[in-house]
Amino acid sequence: MQGLLDRRLLVVTGKGGVGKTTVAAALGLLGAEGGRRTIVVEVGRQSRLAELFGRPEPEPGEEVRLERGLSSISIDPDRALLEWLQALGGRVSGRILASSGTFQYFAAAAPGAREIVTMVKIWRLADDGGRRGSSGKDLVILDAPATGHALGLLRSPQTFGAIARVGPVAKQTGQVQELLADPDRAAYLAVAHGSEMAVTETLELAADLESGVGRELAGVVANALLPRRFSAAELGRVEELRAPDGNGRGAGGAGETRLVEAAVRAAREVHDRAAFQHAQVARLRRRGFEVVALPFLWDAELGLDGVRHLASRLGHALARPAGAGPARAQS
Q: CA 192 to CA 215: how far, in whole Å?
C-alpha cells in the first residue's frame, strides 16, 4: 500500500461499525503530516471529526479546520441535491423548493441524483487541488457510508449517466467517473473487524467494486485486533495453574482457587477470541489482499490521542515495501 496517500482521492469504506471514521481520521493525520493539504469528507448530517478534534459543530456543508494542513467537511446528499435544484431554479428559495412536490418527485424519479451531486462536490475538492493557486486539496479522504450505500455513491456516474446524457450535468458525471476509474488519482481501502461477517462483507465489496466500478481494493485495514499473547505451550502452562496441588484446589484455599480459575478462564477466552480474529484476517490474505492490522485499544472511549496512536501504526505499515510480510497487531 505504499503511495496510497499520493492519490487525489482515497475512498474508505466497509461494514458499519468497524471504525471507518477512525481510520479515515488517522489517514487524514498522516496526509497532513506529510505536507499534503488534506480534507476528510463525511457523508451525512453529522460532523464527528469536528467533535473528535474539539472543534465547535459547524454549519451544514461548512469546512472545519482541524489542525495545520487538515480539515473536514460533511456533505448531506439531500442538501446537496436541493442546492443543485435551487441553482437550476434561479431565484426560487430553498425553503419553497424543499416544501414543493418538485424536490421529492425529482429525487424519486432520478435514480442516483443524490449520490451524483454528492460525488460532484467531492470531485471538485479533488480536482481543484491540482490547479496552481487553487485553495483545493492535495488529498481528499472520503469517509464513505457502509458498504452498500458506498457502492451506490461510486456507481452513481453510471446510474445517473443513463439519464443525463447531454449538458453540464452529463459533463460533470463523466468527470466524476474518470476520477473514480483512474488508478493514479483514486484508490479504495476497506476497513474490517476480525469477524466472519465483516470479512465476508469485505470480500463481497471487493467483487462488487470490480464489477461495478472496474477497480480493485488497494488494501484492507483490519481494525481492533486483539494480540496473540500466548503460544499453545504457554497457554498449557497457564491452565496447569488451575490445580497446583493436583486435587482441584489451590494452596491458598477456595478463594484463591476461584481467583486462579477466573484468571485462567479469561486467558483462554482472550486467546481463543484473538485466534479467531486472526484466522478471519488470514482469509483476506489468502485471497491476495494486502492487510494492515491495527490493535484493539483498551480505552473506555477512543479520543484523539488514540487516533494519533493508530495513525502512527498506519504510517509504519504504509511505509513497508510490498511483500514485506504482515504487521502483527500489538497492544
A: 19
- Which residues touch 236 (CB under 8 Å, ≥6 apart)? none
The pLDDT tens digits of the residues spanning 159-199 come to 876 666 656 677 888 999 999 999 999 999 999 999 999 99
- The burial of 203, by beta-carbon neighbours within 10 Å (0-12 exposed, 13-18 middle, 19 or more buried), is given as middle
pLDDT at 32 over 80: yes
Q: What does the DSSP assignment read for 236-304?
A: HHHHGGG-TTSSS--TT-HHHHHHHHHHHHHHHHHHHHHHHHHHHHHHHHHTT--EEEEEPP--SS--H
- Cα gap 216→91, rounded to integer Å: 44
Three-class SS state of 15: coil
Q: Which three cell numbers stand for residue 191?
A: 476497513
User: What one-character-per-residue DSSP string does 49-75 give?
Assistant: HHHHTTPPPPPTT--EEEETTEEEEEE
SS3 of 221, please? strand
3-state secondary structure of 79: helix
- Given a contact cutoff of 8 angstroms between Cβ atoms, the answer to whether 274 and 227 are in contact is yes
Q: Say if CB 138 and CB 38 are below 8 A apart.
A: yes
Say whether domain 4-228+282-318 belongs to CATH 3.40.50.300.
yes
43: helix, strand or coil: strand
DSSP letter, residue 6:
G
Neighbours of 8 (CB within 10 A): 21
| DSSP notation for 154-174 | HHHHHHHHTT--SHHHHHHHH
Phi, psi of 308 (to 5 degrees): -65, -40
Residue type, 225: L
Domain-wise residue ranges, the chain:
4-228+282-318
**pTM score, two decimals?**
0.86
- Work out the burial of residue 306: count CB atoms within 10 Å of its CB; fewer than 13 is exposed, 13-18 middle, 19 or more buried: middle
Look at the block and give the residue holding cell 479504495: 188
